[in-house]
Amino acid sequence: MHRVTSIFPNFAVMKQKVYAFDFDGTITKRDTFVEFLRFTAGTRRTAWAFLLFSPILILMKLRLYPNWKAKQQMFSWFFRGMEIEDFNNHCREFAVANRKLLRRKIVDVLEEALRAGVKVIIVSASIENWVKPFFSRYGDKVQVSCTRIDVRDGKITGKFLTKNCYGKEKVKRIDRAFPHRGTYELTAFGDSSGDKAMLDYADVKVWRGKNIPSLENIDTSGGADIDADMSMKSLASGHQSFFGEVLRFALVGIAATLLQIGIYNLLVGFMNFALANTIAYLLSFIFNYFASTRFTFKVKSTTRRGLGFTFAHVVNYLLQTVVLALFIHIGWNERLAQLPMFAICVPVNFILVRFFLTKDKTKSDRQR
C-alpha cells in the first residue's frame, strides 16, 4: 500500500489501492459486443444488422445520436424475447471459447494486483452478463460493474436496466463501489474516449497498457499521470483523424454523387433507369476509387484495397438498385427517387470503404 505523510510526524496513513479496468480494448484485444453478436447470431446476420443500422452508427460516430440508444437498438434487434437462461448460457460459452481475446499482459497485471491485496473493479459499457464469466475464476475478488439488461417474466425486453456504463457513468460506478474517494489511491486503465472521465478521475492513468506502474513504487503526490499526455494527445489525434476522414469522404462523395447524378440525368431520357444508373455508377466508381485512396484515406493503391473497395461498391450498387427500384415502385418520380436512395446508401458505403481501405494501414501509408 502507498504511504502518505500524516500531520503527526511519527505516524503514516496507509491508503488502499484500487485498480479500475475498462474491458473492451483494454483487457480484451477488440470490442466484445461485435464478437458476441457473431458468436451467437453468426457473421452473416451480424453483417446484415450493421448494414441496417449503419445510418444510426454513422450518426453515433459523429456524436449526433446517443451512444447508448444505438447500442440498445442493436441489442434489442438481436435478443429481444430471448429467454434469459438461454442468453446466460450463451454468455458463459462465449467467455470459455474466447479467452484468446484477453490481453495476457493486462490479465497478469490484474492477477498481480489481486495477490497484492489491491481492490479490482471492471467498469465497462459491455453487457454485464457476458463480461462476468471472464472473471468468474476470481470469485468476489473482482467486482464487475457494466451495462445491465432488463428482464421481464424470464425474457429479455431489449432495454437496458441501467445507464450505458460509458463516460461519466464509469466514475459514478467507481464511486458507488468505493464511496470514500480520499481513502484510496485509484489507478485507471483505459483505451478510448469513453474512458476519459475515468482516467481524469484517477490518481494514476494507464493508457492502452503503456507504462504500467509498479505496485511498490507509485507516487501519487499531486496526482501522477502515467502516460497521460500521450493518452490525451492520442485521443485528440484519433478524433481529428476520424473527422478529417469524414470531411474528405463527404467532399469526394459529393463530387462522385454529382458526377453520377449528372450522367444519370443525361442518360435516363434515352434508356431504362437501371441501365442509366449502372453506367453513371461505373464512371463515378473509377473517380471515387482514386480520390478515396489518394485524398480521403491517404493510402497506397494496392490489389487488396482495390478488391475491397470494389466489393464495398458492389454491395452499395446492389443496395442502390434495390432502394431506387423500391421508391420508384411506391410512386416516386424516377429522378427524385435518388434522394432517399443516397440518404440510405451513403452511410453504408462510408463504413464499408473505410473498413477495406484502412484495416491494413501501414506506417508508410500514415506518412503519406
Summarize this entry quickly:
The chain has 368 residues and is an alpha/beta fold. The two termini are 48 Å apart. The protein contains 14 helices and 8 strands.
Overview of this protein structure:
With 368 residues, this protein is an alpha/beta fold. The protein contains 14 helices and eight strands. α7 links the parallel β3 and β4. It is elongated and about 85 Å long.
SSE ordering:
EEHHHHHHEHEEEHEHEHHHHH
Low-confidence stretches: 1-12, 217-236
Strand residues, percent: 5-15%
**What's the oligomerization state?**
single chain
For the secondary structure, the number of strands is: 8
Q: What is the 3D shape? A: elongated
Average pLDDT across residues? 82
- Total helix count? 14
What is Rg? Answer: 25 Å
For the sheet with most strands, the description reads:
6 strands, mixed
Distance between the termini: 48 Å
User: What would you call the structural class?
Assistant: alpha/beta
Helix content: 55-70%
